[in-house]
Amino acid sequence: MAHDMKNSAPVWLAWLMWGLVAVLYLLGFFQRMAPAVMVDELMRDFNISGALMGNLSATYFYSYAAMQIPSGLLVDRIGPRRLSTFACIITAIGILVFAWGPNIWYAYIGRFLIGGSVAVAFVTCMKLAGHWFPANRFAMVTGVALLFGNVGGVLAGVPLSEFVAAWGWRTAMAANGGITLIAAAVMWLAVRDDPSEYGFKSHAHASVLEQGNLPARAALKSVICRKDTWLLFFAGGLSASPVLVFAGLWGVPYLMQVYGIERAQAATITSTMLVAWAIGGPVLGALSDKIGQRKLPYLVSTVLTTFFWAIFLFVDLPYVLLYPLLAAIGFTSGSIIIGFAFAREVNHPGASGAVGGVVNMSILGMAAIMQPLLGRILDSHWDGALLNGARIYGSSAYSAAFIWFLASTALSIIMVLSTRESYCIIKDA
């Protein structure tokens, strides 16, 4: 039995097991953000409008969100190793379909496959963290997942922009598909679901070690019947989706068209937001672990996020000041990591996969709704201007679209306010 073993796994081994699965999250984040630096090329090659461009990018989010609950149930049933390996293979297929597709329908299929398969990444990371790390490190480790993922987001900024400029977006995507296949092979060979498989003591909750995870139906029912699950569901999605939509799609064209800067420079600015988001996750998660509270740091961070979005919308700033402002938005938005630990603690320990899937569904699901919504708002304010076949939107159009960022984060404050503090204690079975 895993809990009869004397020694915990070496820290390096725990991080290695977790990190290999987190590679899929990095690759998924790269694909999530990649369209932002390819907007002009995609709109031109497929001859599509802003609304259709939003839908193409959001197809990833639709399938990602739809797969969150199944991912949570699957990871409880078949384990992180098998699930992440199979997902990596499907991701690679989706990337190659997107890269080589001759028309928009192939692009939709490819993005759909990518989103649905990388959907398992964050859930498997959380599942492995619960087995390989002590409970009082869960928020910090989960925060590092956000950091790891955002490395992919940063790579989808300036590096991808330069690659696309030199070799074209199709070559860039095909190369990423090959890397993803290599990652699948490494995961299958090296990753193990629990330290006991390498002869070490597990950190899973005692009830899980003794009784196993809840059956899928019971786990899902337990999670969705708790009020705090839904409060944290909406809190995370409403807070994070503006960052994903701005940095992942409309931020780069906004900066290029409104501020008149080059794409590489615009990508650098949006990458600043992602880097700060990546840092904010583990820092705020570790702070929450240290003080033994979830609600207070989550609430304060969400209030600050809303305040910073208000400055972005209503204060006319030179573009150089966008670096610290967007960094501040990204950092405070990293508090969504606290929400995952929070949700885990207010639910049955045998339903950790299910709760991760449910809560994570909101983040990409709301981004999926917001991307085409903003695209439609931009189209409704379009004055007919084109540049190299791509639509050009004015500052008033972007202002009308981006007001939804402020509304979204303001609503997230209400959700966090309505939760009950868990004090970093996992609910008893």
Structure overview:
- The chain is mostly helical and 429 residues long.
- It has one domain: MFS general substrate transporter like domains (Growth Hormone, Chain: A), CATH 1.20.1250.20.
- Helices cover 77% and strands 1% of the residues.
- It contains 19 helices and two strands.
- The protein has a two-stranded antiparallel sheet with strand order 1-2.
- Strand 1 and strand 2 form a beta hairpin.
- Helix 5 packs antiparallel against helix 10.
- The radius of gyration is 21 Å and the shape is globular.
- The model has no long low-confidence stretch (mean pLDDT 88).
Describe the structure concisely.
77% of the residues lie in helices and 1% in strands.
Distance between the termini: 20 Å
Mean pLDDT: 88
What's the structural domain tally? 1
Rg, rounded, reads 21 Å
Q: Quickly count the helices.
A: 19
- The best one-word shape is globular
Give, in spatial order, the strands making up the sheet with the most strands: 1-2
**Major sheet, described briefly?**
2 strands, antiparallel
CATH architecture annotation: Up-down Bundle
Total strands: the figure is: 2
Query: What would you call the structural class?
Result: mainly alpha
Order of helices and strands: HHHHHHHHHHHHHHHHHHEEH
Features:
2 strands; single chain; 19 helices; globular; 77% helix; two-stranded antiparallel sheet; Growth Hormone, Chain: A; 429 residues; mainly alpha
